[in-house]
Amino acid sequence: MSIQFVEIPWRERTVRIEHEFLSPAQRVEAGAPLIVFLHEGLGSRSMWRDFPQRLCDAVGAPGLVYSRPGYGRSTPRAADEHWGLDFMHRQADEVLPALLDALDVPRPVWLFGHSDGGSIALLHAAHQPQRVAGAVVLAPHIRVEAFGLASIRAARVAYETTELRSRLSRHHDDVDSAFWGWNDIWLHPDFPTWNIEAELPAIACPLLAVQGLDDPYGTLEQIRGIARARPSTTRAPTELLELPACGHDPQRDQPDALIAAVQAFMARHR
């Protein structure tokens, strides 16, 4: 299906959300839930490239890919809009539910989130457990590490001095909206206090957490912290996948290994 737009109410205005539904190459397996893809802090629908389609084909499930407000072809941030420390909570608790309602998406769904999108997936699964059948999170953030903040500072320098802005502009109608919305809040002096570990025990679905060993934005403690905060149970297992030769983007650095792992995980727990 081609790219579409839907309007949702958010932050006392109406925002337009760019989205695309994906169908697997083969017939959808019986009972296969929709997989909702949640992009990274500088991502968009288009920046996933062909990975969502490849995963949907492999697991025999439909997918939904969208750009959050401020990203891609979705409504940019307003000129005076500054995100708060709760910006990922607001995406999890307000934007995602409003989008799924506007699109009449049956619940429960599977969530597939990367980086900030992984944190949003964890928060949505914790706050609305009855609406989530399972979750896969890549390079999620559950706390702020000085290690990662150094890379975010380096990204700011790269945006101002290299071709990074030009490359990102291919994926965002308002590239400054996307970059500064993300970078400003992550480098806010109060943001090091951000932490969602206390919320993770409420997650009631199967959860696969993935981390690259060479990720410049987070250490293995991000996913190992998930396992400590939310111990595995028979009905709601927590599984970890630590990928060598992999940076912040497992879907680009190790796509085949990632797809195989997700396919096996969903087969066991769907």
TrEMBL record:
<dbReference type="GO" id="GO:0016020">
    <property type="term" value="C:membrane"/>
</dbReference>
<dbReference type="InterPro" id="IPR000073">
    <property type="entry name" value="AB_hydrolase_1"/>
</dbReference>
<protein>
    <submittedName>
        <fullName>Pimeloyl-ACP methyl ester carboxylesterase</fullName>
    </submittedName>
</protein>
<dbReference type="InterPro" id="IPR050266">
    <property type="entry name" value="AB_hydrolase_sf"/>
</dbReference>
<feature type="domain" description="AB hydrolase-1">
    <location>
        <begin position="35"/>
        <end position="261"/>
    </location>
</feature>
<dbReference type="InterPro" id="IPR029058">
    <property type="entry name" value="AB_hydrolase_fold"/>
</dbReference>
<dbReference type="Pfam" id="PF12697">
    <property type="entry name" value="Abhydrolase_6"/>
</dbReference>
